[in-house]
Amino acid sequence: MTPVEIVLPRNIADRYGPQIEHVDPARLRLVPIVGDDPRDPDPGDAEIAVNAFFYDSPAFSTILPGLPNLRWIHSMGAGIDDIATPELVERCVHVTNVSGAYAPAMAEYIVGAMVMLARPWGRWIVGQASRDWEPRRAPSGVELRGKTIGIVGYGAVGRQVAQACRALGMSVWAIRRTPIFASSEPVDRLLGPSGLYELLEASDVVAVCASLNASTRSLLGEAEFGAMRPGSFLVNVARGEVVDQAALVATLESGHLGGAVLDVATPEPLPADDALWDAPNLFLSPHTAGDTPEGWQRGIDLFCSNLGLYLAGRPEHMGNIVDLRMHI
User: Fold this and answer.
1) How confident is the model at residue 90 (pLDDT cuts 50, 70, 90)?
2) Domain spanning 4-101+293-327, CATH class
């Protein structure tokens, strides 16, 4: 029996290889690579690829041309903008992602970001570093209870954020590209894309959770930031390209926005001379909002579940199938 080869990053194979092979030890052969190491085995016969090369290097797009027999890509990220190309669509390759796997961690990140922005944690951290116990100031920040959060991109992450914010006593508005019945959702208002400005004008916090595609690239710019409430906050856990970063810096410098937390930027890694580093009341993290062991394990569990269906000749029944055409 010809083995089914799976090309995957070496660090993923080291950590999760036994669990993957356990799906069908007699049929599966793992091909662990780094991608730029001359000692890597030839992955040319691989039928399946696990895309987690964003975690190390190189870019997965540099590996694709050397995989002529590829039939399925499983992305360990929820976003697949790094592989969504017309060329891959023409190859009719199955694509799955791990949408939802990192949602709990990302929701917790957004709640933590809101708390940090609502209270002067930035100033307090600087004070601790300089051993400066500042005099008490009244009031010191604001409560989140009774405020409104606007969620741009109401998918798995957005829904988790909505549930958490409801528990905090916040009003929840959200935007979703495709309509769903809102009666069972933890939102006060669920709008379509045309409701963006209405959401921005109503929100004390705007959380960006949308996938990157033609309709969301540069979605928030000068006009959109101008429509946000004075003193409101922005949290972006989606993709850097969704936000016009120069416009964001200018809006923060003008004092119109009260602050921002970005887990993503463009480009990544962010150059040392980028204006984001010095923007007032802006906090950066290196694209790690969902990066927890629990999230990665859920992503591998989903891959192994799908792998069983694939080997059984039922790839159309796999979970989290992505239509690449929607992301170009």
Assistant:
1) confident
2) alpha beta
The chain-wide mean pLDDT, for the chain, equals: 93
287 as an active site residue: the answer is yes
pLDDT, greater one: 182 or 258: 258
Residue of 87, 143, 222, 268 marked catalytic: 268
DSSP conformational letter for 220: B
Q: Single out the catalytic residue among 239, 241, 298, 327.
A: 239
- Residues of the chain within CATH 3.40.50.720 domain(s) are 4-101+293-327, 103-284
Residue 268 designated active-site: yes
CA distance linking residue 129 with residue 208, whole number of Å: 31
The tens digit of pLDDT for each residue in 235-245 reads 999 999 999 99
Closest CA relative to residue 319, chosen from 64, 94, 77:
94
Mean pLDDT, range 191-212, rounded to an integer: 97
Q: Does 3.40.50.720 match the CATH number of domain 103-284?
A: yes
Comparing 293 with 56, which gets the higher pLDDT?
293
DSSP string, 116-185: HHHTTHHHHHHHHHTT--PPP-SS-S--STT-EEEEES-SHHHHHHHHHHHHTT-EEEEE-SS----TTS
**Is residue 139 reached through a cis peptide bond, with omega within 30 degrees of 0 on the bond before it?**
yes
**How high is the pLDDT of residue 19?**
98
Catalytic residue (one of 159, 287, 298, 327): 287
CB 150 within 8 A of CB 174: yes
Cis peptide, bond prior to residue 269, ω within 30 of zero: yes
What is the value of pTM for the model shown? 0.91
